[in-house]
Amino acid sequence: MKHWNRYNPIGAEEKAAVNRVLDSGVLSKYIGAWHEDFNGGVEVNAFEHELAEYFGVPHAVVFNSLTSGLIAAMGAMGVQPGDEILVTPWSMSATATAILIWGGIPVFVDIEPDFYGIDPNRIVEKITRKTKGIIVADIFGHGARLDELRALADQHHLFLIEDVAQAPGIQLDGKFLGTWGDVGGFSLNYHKHIHTGEGGFCICHRDDIAMKMRLIRNHAESAVSGSPIDDLTNMVGFNFRLGEMEAAIGREQLKKLPMLLQQNQKKASRIIETLAGESWLVTTPVGKPGEHAYYVLPFRLTDDRITNSQLAEKLRERGVPGIVCGYVNIHRLPMYQQKIAFGPFPWAHSEPDHYHYDIGQFPIAETLHTKTFIGLLISMFDLNEDECTWIANQMIAAYQELSAEVQHE
Fold first, then answer.
1. Model confidence over 20-79: pLDDT tens digits?
2. Which domain holds residue 392?
3. Which of the listed residues 90, 114, 232, 312 has the most CB atoms within 10 Å of its CB?
4. At 319, which CATH number?
5. For 177-234, what is each residue's pLDDT tens digit?
6. CB contact at 8 A, 206 and 224
């Protein structure tokens, strides 16, 4: 079995940055009260400044994870018990769990099959007087239909939050993903394009939202007195702070982001080119070069005789790395099936019978998960051109083998 080299963007620059922090003796510099060190140390503040400058926004706030960042964003946007938030079921669980932390209720909306984002055409039918916002995941590395989602949010006076964990540095219509929403959240987890081991950050345009996220990050209840925020809503704080070493690493990683994205796009292009003409699968239609980060190289099977699990088994037998068979359907998790989070809260706070997470409610997401979606985690492996060609050829061979087997049944 071939050995596959893992993707590793950490180099001499990051090592020097860590040593700089170690030599300073200051590994963290937060004070959990309104104080000159409330916002952390030199590296944290420099990293936030550089992130804001990169994305062309007034504010960036770093966290110890994007999960923390999404929780802080929900709190900063004023989510309260019983508020309904429209959210994709096709994402990592934290996209929806961040709503529950504040007593909000996730209302799932099915996705569209091209970009795998929440479907704008299905949103209007889910809006009620309790609806407060929309969370969209720019999944696998491509933006959702953000122009339509932004227009819907504005029309119905809803906030829009982007989970951009898998698509850092990507633009859609000349505008960075993450800047379409009121808040955009990014992951710095170890298997992302750039990483700090653990970590994340949020970007936004509004001073008050940025300040509230900073407060929630660092013991808001102790720090709000003296801050410029008068509204105590959701000023319940956590310790979501990123350390100086991680921030120093992040500063170096950010410099590499365009280069690392190009490398990943080159891998994807080679595989897609080799598969050109194979009518049994389709991938995301990319309008312009550079519009996809390819955290996952996604495919949808069009031959209804063959399922994704059958193809995945054949590919694993052939030694193809990073197979993704189906994807998370958040609504299928036991918590939603039983409507139990903090005891029966938050559903019991409202009308539990009004919220349905039954299997069959979201046919596109469910069919993709159980039958038609297969992907390659090319971002996790250091693949050269020949290896990319080999992977694509193995996909063709595996399909042909399955097709022959099905034909003879």
1. 999 999 999 999 999 999 999 999 999 999 999 999 999 999 999 999 999 999 999 999
2. 258-327+365-407
3. 90
4. 3.90.1150.10
5. 999 999 999 999 999 999 999 999 999 999 999 999 999 999 999 999 999 999 999 9
6. no
The better pLDDT of the pair 350, 89 is held by 89
**Which of residues 229, 252, 275 is at a domain's end?**
252
Task: Give yes or no: residues 59 and 180 share one domain.
Answer: yes
Same domain, 209 and 65: yes
Q: 408 pLDDT exceeds 90?
A: no
Last residue of a domain, one of 209, 229, 252: 252
Number of domains in the chain: 2
* Token pair recorded at residue 226: 């003296």
pLDDT of residue 352: 67
CATH of the domain at 172: 3.40.640.10
